[in-house]
Amino acid sequence: MRLVHSVFVITNTLGVISIFKLISIFFERQDINKKIEFISYSLYFVLSSLVFIFLPIPLLMLFFHIISIFALTFNYEGTIKSRITATIYVYLIIFAVEIIFMSLFDHRKIFVFKAQELHSIYLIICVRAVVYIVSLILSGKKNNLIKYKNISIGYWTGVISIPIASLFVIIMFLNIANVTEHKQILFVVSALIMINLVSFQLYNYTLTMLQEKNKKIILQKQNSSYLQQLRIIQADNAKMSLIRHDIKNHLFALKSLYEKGDIDSFKDYFNCILSNIDMEEKLCNSGNIIVDSMINYKLKGVANTDISVDVCIPEKLDISDMDITVILGNLLDNALRAIKEVNEHGEESMLHLNLNYTKGRLILRIENSYLNVNLVQGNFLTTKKDKKGHGLGLESVKEVLSKYDGVLQITCDKGVFIVEAVLYCR
């Protein structure tokens, strides 16, 4: 094996790591088979080394790497559009860096259709190092690129056409007969890199805007749902208030039917009253209608769970009904979702809720059993495959808390998920 081949194989480890980092910009690494991922990158390492040693034809290597990178994206969850986007951008970065250093180190005309000795030891080392540095820099863009996948086909086509056209222009430019000046190559490649960097930034910015828009839509839908629940609760409370207000009249009517001996009418009337009265046991009876109703509404019918509720608050709080509904609704929904997953695994579950008012502060603490939860800098991340909407509820809670100078703290301890919220009532 020649020295240049040995250097390539040795530095190919860094090259594969760089490709891994660049691909990871576009995809989440949760819920993946890490063994298959490792095997696939190892296979790519072996095949790319063999192609370089035995088939060093640039155009052939170009197609090999594009197909290989596209195949590697199947380690991760994503759409075909995201796979194509990742493949084109990843290879464009590598290809552009190679062309720049080829023009710097080689003093002959570059051909991409013929086998040739273009790869000096310095070239290989420099390309590997620069591509790795670029992969580290671009890794900072990961959060914005992976969160939004429902981009329109028209916009996606426009974005992806830029790097594809750039690759085509570079290939054709290198094979024009009168292009022998390396300054020309550097200028063209540098210009194309700048164009693609700008398009990459625009792509990232657009995805960020679309992500924010999508987040607001989901939050609006969630808040609309809680508003509807609040209306249902208020309607039920109004109905119960009317029944309580009319109870004296109902008792007189029953007394009259009984005295007349009209037992059938008495029973019908009595059953009608009972049907309009909720006889279910209430978990919360603090006197605050909104809080009591929301907690009882959410926890009604929850089975196979150790539930305890301790609420000590005034009948009236200096917090809007909608805000307290959003806070309790979101946090209880998250807790119930976690409990359901625990129960589905046949394990014991519990939910403890404490809500107290002291010295102008409303303090809420919810403890519940959980499975499959990650905490990253205090933020809740679900590991379930259906991620749409998960975590946005907490953002909605934080937004409400900010109106009352409140804080939200999330901790996990020995299978118990703990959420604590503090609001300063006006």
How do you describe this structure in short?
The chain has 426 residues and is α+β, with helices and mostly antiparallel strands.
Write a structural description.
The protein has 13 helices and seven strands. By secondary structure, it is α+β, with helices and mostly antiparallel strands. It has two domains: 3-218, no CATH class; 281-424, Histidine kinase-like ATPase, C-terminal domain (Heat Shock Protein 90, 2-Layer Sandwich). The strands form two sheets. It has a five-stranded mixed β-sheet, with helices on one face. A hairpin with a 2-residue loop joins strand 2 and strand 3. Helix 1 (3-24) runs antiparallel to helix 2 (34-54), helix 4 (80-105) runs antiparallel to helix 8 (182-245) and helix 7 packs antiparallel against helix 8 (182-245). It starts with a helix and ends with a strand. The model is unreliable at 110-118 and 383-390 (pLDDT under 50).
